[in-house]
Amino acid sequence: MKIDLHQPILDKNDRIASENRDLFKEKRVFVLDLLASPGSGKTSTILATIEALRDEFNIAVIEGDIASNVDAERISAQGIAAVQINTGGACHLESDMIRRAVNALDLDNLDLIIVENVGNLVCPTDFDLGEGAKVMILSVPEGDDKPLKYPGVFQVAEAIILNKVDTMSVFNFNEQAFRDAVTQLNPQAPIFPIAATKGEGVEAWAEWLRAKIRAMQEA
Amino acid sequence: MHELGIMTGVVESVGAAARNAGADKVLKVSLSVGVMTEAIEDALQFAFEALCEQDPLFEGAQLDITMVHPKSRCTECGLVFDHDRYHVICPECGGFAELLQGKELRIDSIEVDIPDEEEETERKSS
Lengths: 219, 126
What we know:
The complex is a heterodimer. Chain A contains eight helices and eight strands, in the order E-H-E-H-E-H-E-H-E-E-H-H-E-H-E-H. Chain A is α/β, with parallel strands linked by helices. Chain A has a single domain, classed as P-loop containing nucleotide triphosphate hydrolases (Rossmann fold), CATH 3.40.50. In chain A, strands 4-3-5-2-6-7-8 form a seven-stranded parallel β-sheet, sandwiched between helices. The longest helix of chain A has 17 residues, at 11-27. By secondary structure, chain B is of the alpha+beta class. Chain B has a domain at 3-69 and 103-114: hypothetical protein PF0899 fold (2-Layer Sandwich). Chain B contains three helices and six strands. Chain B has helices at residues 3-20, 41-52, 115-125, and strands at residues 25-34, 62-68, 71-74, 80-82, 97-101, 105-113. Chain B has a three-stranded mixed β-sheet with strand order 2-1-6. The radius of gyration of chain B is 19 Å and the shape is elongated. The A-B interface holds A 1-13, 90-92, 94, 122-123, 125-127, 148, 151-152, 155, 181, 183-188 and B 1-2, 5-6, 9-10, 13-14, 17-18, 21, 23, 31, 36-39, 85-89, 96, 105-114, 117. Strand 1 of chain A pairs antiparallel with strand 6 (105-113) of chain B, so a sheet runs across the interface.
């Protein structure tokens, strides 16, 4: 006997993501899902972003890692609430992990939650967490050809941060080739070149994020 | 490597639907997978086979995957066009396009054996 199901495979994840999204809307918290490779400077970018926005907004961070809490400790050292999720081997975060993590946060007194997804340019792209936006970081040493190798993540991102731009000459990074490839994949996404550890370029990125947070608060 | 997680969800959903229908065997599972997702056909097959070994309900089950090629509509000139993973801009006017298909991750249908139904059919035909 044939049974027609027509059921999304990620049904359960999408349902919980939608509940998360409703909760974030009710609490007027903007949630940023940050995707990038290991070593691209996710935590440094988060620290620079916190530095730029902490006077205006209450910020918390959810750290997704396969193991350890070294990232959460770096964030906590700055006096920012951080929740560590250890996926125990899983290569991406799912919406129910976010639901459990936000239980540990005081949503009534937060404006921005930055989710640092597991370092991976592939798997996290298929999973809706209920975020306000997915943003990706590519770092210069990874190479200008990455949009061609990992198109999915460049397409799902609403904005793209190009980190470690101070090393561009060392790595022969062709910024124009990078921009052209991104434009083919995702013409609407702005690209923010930054050097997170030096604070360079961070203000333009923070301005984009500021507008998103304000829009959430005024909705 | 998230194909195992995706397929675990498929096997759970299919198992529940099959048991609901009173089936004792899943013969075939049909999926649609968009080319613009990060799910790889071979890895899905591999994960399915590994999971089937763990559940007698799925013994010998086949997985049929239809890969869905991307298609978009230009938001400016309205042209509907096929494209690959890398070129999503309208080939006519260069406008932004919205994706019509190519991001599917869907269970379309399943084929199952229902013991009572078979006996019924046999009685009728004899």
